[in-house]
Amino acid sequence: MAIKISNSQWITIVLITAVLMLVFLVFGGRAPRTQQPMNLPLDQAETPQSQMEAPTNAPEQGW
Does the predicted TM-score (pTM) go above 0.85? Predict the structure, then answer.
């Protein structure tokens, strides 16, 4: 336990972990959901199908 970490290294470690957490949150749970608002102007006629598919995908994503 003789490893010494300076303040700048603590800042970089915290920033790297925060970026990794954000990447896992965005791409892990919200990537299928962020694609839907971008396709909403094209898929407004298919909103009942997307609403029917949402409960089937919900248990798999942990919701």
Answer: no
**Residues 28-53: pLDDT tens digits?**
765 555 555 555 555 555 545 545 55
Whole-number Å distance between alpha carbons of 4 and 41: 55
Alpha helices for the chain (secondary structure H): 7-29, 31-38, 47-57
The span from the CA of 21 to the CA of 17, in Å, is: 6
14 to 9, 22, 28, 34, 50: CA distances (angstroms): 9, 12, 20, 27, 38
59: its two tokens = 């248990």
The most distant pair of C-alpha atoms in the chain lies apart, rounded to whole Å, by 63
